[in-house]
Amino acid sequence: MSMMSLLGGSLPLIGLSLILSIALAVHVVRTGRELFWLWIILIFQPIGGLVYFLAIVLPELSRGQTAQRLERSARAALDPLREYREAKQACEDTPTVRNQSRLAHAAVALGRHEEAERLYAEAAHGIHADDPALLLGRANALLELNRAPEALAVLERLTRDPSEGHTPTAVLALGRAYEAAGRAAEADAALSEAAQRMPGFEGQARYAAFMARNGRKPEAQAMIAEMDKRLTKLAAQFRREGKHWRDLAAKALAEG
Fold it and tell me: Are 184 and 214 in contact (CB under 8 A)?
């Protein structure tokens, strides 16, 4: 068999290894992992990529979102500051984008929106300047701080991304920013879309609250009634969060 035949047979495998390595390298950057993983993946192909997949990617895939959510809820109930402390320590030890983002998320859970906004802004630099998760996190923090014009500017950058910029959570944030900016028609369209696309209660609750604040009480009441029906069918571990959003809509209705 000629050398060309051997080389030709191996080219597809080399190409596949290179594509997988690039995909894993992108995962490292997008998730804010330590940059030494890039060297391991790219220099020690394909073993380095396999090590990264087994050590980092596979555990993430095997743990479903529901399991992670229940774990976070249990930890938060037993020790509300634990995640914040651990995230802060991790950020001080290794100030990666991933750790900054984790600390910002923990700060949001404690209502520390100023700290979260600062952390998201600091993390969004260099190759991470247009990272969708960082932009959305910062925009939501700005909304909680009643800084809607800044939030809208950040979200307009996010919507340039044809995929990440139009997720249900991004659309919801955009609707909230439009409402705060007095752009009611655009807010209505965005919040209505979010209410239809989001699987939880927040989208419906925020849209019902918007309708209550804008003279559409019967529609808001109907949506709250629908949420009440859903709550009766919800598993106990998720009912508390659902009721939180339902009560937010009911409060807007009472005040409207």
Answer: yes
Residue 251: pLDDT band with limits 50, 70, 90: very high
| 173 within 8 A of 151, measured Cβ to Cβ | yes
Q: Please name the amino acid found at residue 191.
A: L
How high is the pLDDT of residue 64?
A: 52
Q: Which amino acid is at 126?
A: G
Cβ(206)–Cβ(244) below 8 Å: no
CB atoms under 10 Å from CB of 103, counted, come to 26
pLDDT band per the 50, 70, 90 thresholds, residue 3: very low
Tell me the per-residue pLDDT of 155-212, one tens digit each, with 9 for 90 and over: 999 998 888 889 999 999 999 999 999 999 999 999 999 999 998 899 999 999 999 9
Token code pair at residue 18: 């290179």
Of 157, 89, 84, 82, the closest CA to residue 115 belongs to 84
Separation CA 114–CA 40 (nearest Å):
37
- Buried-exposed string 225-254: b where 16+ CB fall within 10 A, e elsewhere: eebeeeeeeeeeebeeebbebbebbbebbe
Q: How far apart are CA 239 and CA 124, in angstroms?
A: 35
pLDDT digits over 5-22, tens only?
444 445 566 667 778 888
Cβ atoms 230, 201 nearer than 8 A: yes
- C-alpha 168/C-alpha 146 separation (Å) is 21
- Residue 104's nearest CA partner among 142, 63, 77 is 142
- The Cα-based distances of 134 to 30, 54, 182 in angstroms read 10, 26, 25
Nearest in space to 139 (alpha carbons), one of 110, 104, 102, 106: 104
